Amino acid sequence: MRVRGQGSRRTGVLAAALAVAVAVTGCSSDQPAPRAQPTTTPPTTTAPPATTAAPKPPPTPAPAKPINPLTGSRRIPTGPVLAVKIDDTASGRPQIGIEAADVVYVEQVEAGATRLVAVFASRHPARVGPVRSVRRTDPALLSAYGPAGLVFSGGAGGPLRSLHRSRLRDLAGSGVYSRTYDGGRRAPYNLVANLGALSTRALSVARVRDVGFRWGERDPRLARTRHVMRMSAVVGRTRVSFGFEPSTLRWVRTVGGSRVRTASGAAVRAANVVVQFCRVTVDRGNVDVLGTPSMYTHTIGSGTAVVFRDGRAIPGTWKRPTLGAPTRWYDAKGAEIALKPGGAWVLLAASGTGVRYG
């Protein structure tokens, strides 16, 4: 009995211990695990440094394409500038080679007659004429061209002295002149010059430069100007006339209503005709064999002008302040007038003589 009693007490102690272990284990498995508490501090991030975009440079304007200052074309002559005195009377027509000139001036001489000063740079024909004598007007007129070469057939003492005091090159004795008798020509209306041969010898003669012409294929002012089909101005006592040819956009010279043609049969055409009104005075130092004095046209100064291009007339003014300076042409608002590319004829009329067009 005592033995059974001790065993029973041990058994009870073991049972109690197991009950306590089970209770502890049960409490541990039923208790939820602790959760992380949320933070109230915002997360920190490292931003890349701010960058400022560099401003784009302005576009570089395209450089202006060079042009021939005497015609407005893209072909720049490399040869000498040669000015030729050419007869402009009925006895001297048909003229030879003037269709190749870049610029042609019409000036007054003695007895109301006219003479041409034709400027060649783009082309140098083998035959140009009839070559005539120099006048005192020529050195001042051509001084803007620099030391250009002047082709002529002599002259009176006064004009020759003026020429030799100027920057122009005297090419009268260059050995490239000859006489032609085609069409029954007689002296003094049959002297011709070979500009092709002369251009290889005139090494000290000026090349093309800006003499004042401004060129533009289009001009918005034309739409607001008067449409013109014919024009004429009086130079000396000679009426110089042109008619507009829409098919070529050129002005064709006429005499007595008929087209003027050169010795080659080509009509005398001009992309532009500029009437430049100048002061004209008697030149007592230049008298012909009949005792008639020549006239001096003052191309330094200012005055009125009319520019004819594209079948339109643009009235304006001209200005040339000093010897050697270029001549500029301006519209009524003071803006320079652009000529149509292709060269020009400039009629040097006396102030107050007027111009007809319509």
Question: Can you offer a commentary on this structure?
Answer:
This protein has 358 residues and is an alpha+beta fold. The chain has one domain (82-357): YerB-like (YerB-like fold). The chain is 14% helix and 30% strand. The protein contains four helices and 20 strands. The protein has helices spanning 2-30, 137-142, 157-165, 195-199; strands at residues 82-87, 103-108, 114-120, 149-151, 169-170, 177-179, 191-193, 226-227, 230-235, 238-245, 250-255, 258-259, 269-270, 272-287, 293-298, 301-309, 312-320, 328-330, 344-350, 355-357. The strands form three sheets. Strands 1, 2, 3, 4, 5, 8, 14, 15, 16, 17, 18 and 19 form a twelve-stranded mixed sheet that branches. β11 (250-255) and β12 (258-259) form a beta hairpin. The longest helix has 29 residues, at 2-30. The termini are far apart. Mean pLDDT is 87; it is low at 1-36.
The total tally of domains equals 1
Could you tell me the CATH topology label: YerB-like fold
Point out poorly predicted stretches. Answer: 1-36
Separation of the first and last Cα atoms: 161 Å
Short description:
This protein is an alpha+beta fold and 358 residues long. The protein has 4 helices and 20 strands.
Topology summary:
Layout: H1 2-30, E1 82-87, E2 103-108, E3 114-120, H2 137-142, E4 149-151, H3 157-165, E5 169-170, E6 177-179, E7 191-193, H4 195-199, E8 226-227, E9 230-235, E10 238-245, E11 250-255, E12 258-259, E13 269-270, E14 272-287, E15 293-298, E16 301-309, E17 312-320, E18 328-330, E19 344-350, E20 355-357
Parallel strand pairs: 1-4, 2-19, 4-5, 14-19
Antiparallel strand pairs: 1-3, 2-3, 6-7, 8-17, 9-10, 9-20, 10-11, 11-12, 11-13, 14-15, 14-16, 16-17, 17-18
